[in-house]
Design brief:
Distance between the termini: 31 Å
Structural class: mainly alpha
Length: 260
């Protein structure tokens, strides 16, 4: 009987690993196709979505966003054994529809959207491999890097760049807010014995690994310092990005070692 139960547990474990592996294969395929599309398709293809196409893409964007919220909040399906999930579809569909709808509102949109799609692809792979702490930290770093770019390269409000102006304003606010929240939560978690922050018995934040917590704390401080530096010295953008990237890679190596 024990051997039968052990065999069933092994089968479930292998199945879960296979699903994760197939998801990674699919993500690699989507990443290659998407990046290639933004790189090789002519600009006139994307500008074709302007005018009436902008409204169509915007309606599709709102529909996908609303459908995703409805599915996750009300239907709440168990998609743990599915390779293609509603979250995965929304993860790529929402930003791609946004890019198509507002391509003409960004300066040098082709290059920016290539980088954005590459970042989405990298994060999707990290999300499927690492634990929540490093996933969240990665998201904070990526958003902050985008904010750092717009801090060093401010966008002037022009009629044809109004969407990029709004996007830049929002992303700069997030570049300050997200590392600040991460810093506060990291300090609070490290001061608790179990590393868990609860609000009315609900787990708000959990930090099981002390070393990863310290790394998150340091990285949050560096991100806030980077924001402050670029506000006053935007010419240091390249050096700041290299510093943040090096520290993030070091944190990733630490998380990988701790995960093994």
């Amino acid at each position: 009987m024990k051997q039968k139960n052990k065999k069933q547990q092994n089968d479930v474990s292998v199945s879960a690993e296979d699903i994760q592996l197939y998801r990674l294969y699919l993500l690699f395929g989507i990443s290659i196709v998407g990046f290639s599309a933004f790189h090789f398709l002519p600009k006139k293809f994307f500008y074709a979505f302007q005018g009436v196409g902008t409204w169509i893409m915007t309606v599709l964007l709102l529909f996908v966003l609303g459908a995703f919220i409805y599915i996750r909040l009300y239907i709440k399906p168990d998609e743990s054994k599915k390779i293609v999930t509603s979250s995965g579809i929304a993860y790529f569909a929402i930003p791609v529809l946004y890019m198509l709808a507002f391509y003409g509102h960004f300066v040098n949109a082709g290059l920016k959207f290539q980088i954005a799609f590459a970042i989405l692809s990298v994060y999707s792979i990290i999300y499927n491999i690492y634990k929540p702490n490093f996933r969240n930290l990665t998201a904070i770093v990526l958003v902050t890097l985008a904010g750092l770019y717009y801090i060093a390269n401010p966008v002037e409000f022009l009629s044809y760049r109004w969407m990029e102006f709004i996007f830049a304003a929002v992303i700069k606010v997030l570049a300050v807010a997200l590392p600040s929240v991460s810093l506060i939560l990291s300090v609070a978690a490290l001061t608790h014995k179990d590393g868990i922050i609860r609000v009315r018995r609900h787990v708000l934040y959990e930090m099981r690994d002390k070393y990863v917590g310290i790394a998150s704390l340091v990285l949050s401080v560096v991100l806030l310092a980077a924001v402050a530096v670029l506000f006053f010295a935007p010419s240091l953008f390249v050096y700041v990005i290299i510093t943040v990237a090096a520290l993030y890679v070091g944190t990733g190596i630490l998380c990988t070692v701790r995960m093994l």
